[in-house]
Amino acid sequence: FCLSEITTRKGNSFFFIDPFGYTQFKMNDIRKIMILPKTEILLTFMLDFIRRFLSSRKESLASFDNNLEANDYFNLANIDSIDSIWEQAYLREETLRLFRNKTNVKYLYTFGMLPNKTLVKYYLIHFANKITAQKVIKDTLWVHNSIDHSCMFEYGIYGFGFRTPD
Predict the structure, then answer these.
(1) Fewer Cβ in 10 A, N or C end of the chain?
(2) Contacts of 64 (CB under 8 A, 6+ apart)
(3) Kind of pairing, strands 107-114 and 39-46?
(4) What strands, in cross-sheet order, belong to the sheet with 161-163?
């Protein structure tokens, strides 16, 4: 892990974390990164992590909870309507609540990545402790947003984002 080198260097740091499943990173890793000054994280977070967790909650709770400390989160999720706009909104908000509470990061921002016009598959979650960092990422993602407003409202997509190939 490169945190000691970054601490010595004392410059700006940007981490892009693209885990292969929720077992590939821990909430504590994010906390360690975010205590460094001038640091940001962009995390790809696949909603299928949550779907898989919810579909076999009792069997996978220990692993999910150990890594993401999520034992009191996603309790109101309904696996039968997981792709509805209301359920997607709940999953997004609960994911943000989890990261906000467990990392104590000041600013979180999400941007959806959609394989079709109706379903968010991934969220890009930006972590920052400086408002300037959040403004820059919002401006950048807004400029490169590939979902127009009419598509967002017509198809009930929750949030802005990028169209992605399946």
Answers:
(1) C
(2) 22, 49, 53, 70
(3) unpaired
(4) 13-17, 39-46, 122-128, 107-114, 161-163
Comparing CA positions, the residue from 125, 116, 124, 127 lying closest to residue 157 is 116
43 touches 127 (CB < 8 A): yes
Give 22: exposed, middle or buried? Use CB within 10 Å, 0-12, 13-18, 19+. Answer: buried
Of the candidates 89, 23, 86, 25, the residue with the CA atom closest to the CA atom of residue 15: 25
Give the largest CA-CA distance in the chain.
Answer: 50
Give the DSSP letter string of 100-146: HHHH--SEEEEEEEESSSS---EEEEEEESSHHHHHHHHHHHHHT--
Q: Do 102 and 32 contact (CB within 8 A), yes or no?
A: no
For residue 3, the 8-state DSSP code is H
CB hemisphere CA count around 161 (13 angstroms): 26
* 68-105 pLDDT per residue, tens: 888 888 888 877 777 777 787 788 888 889 999 999 89
